[in-house]
């Protein structure tokens, strides 16, 4: 059993550990952050894509028979 200074240090360490644990749980999840950065959604397969160029490449490679969406004709 710890006494005096050791007890105080153990309490401070436990409090810091608990505060760090709670802090991690309150923040946004990585998936939520990633979904916010996604700007385009494929009309055919509903895949979320970040940029227009990547979206156009995806559409041309994965859905060659489908008509190109209006938003990609300008890119």
From TrEMBL:
Residues 1-26 form the Small EDRK-rich factor-like N-terminal domain. Coiled coil: none annotated. The keyword Cytoplasm applies. Its main location: cytoplasm. It holds the Pfam family SERF-like_N. The keyword Ribonucleoprotein does not apply. Keywords: Cytoplasm, Nucleus. InterPro entries: MBS1/2-like (IPR045230), SERF-like_N (IPR007513), ZNF706/At2g23090_sf (IPR026939). GO terms for cellular component: cytoplasm; nucleus. It comes from the Eukaryota. Residues 1-19 have a biased composition (Low complexity). This is Small EDRK-rich factor-like N-terminal domain-containing protein. It comes from Sphaeroforma arctica JP610.
């Amino acid at each position: 059993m710890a006494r005096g200074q050791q007890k105080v240090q153990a309490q401070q360490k436990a409090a810091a550990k608990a505060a760090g644990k709670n802090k991690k749980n309150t923040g946004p999840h990585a998936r939520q952050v990633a979904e916010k950065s996604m700007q385009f959604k494929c009309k055919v397969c509903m895949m979320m894509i970040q940029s227009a160029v990547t979206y156009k490449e995806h559409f041309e490679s994965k859905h060659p028979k489908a008509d190109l969406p209006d938003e990609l004709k300008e890119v």
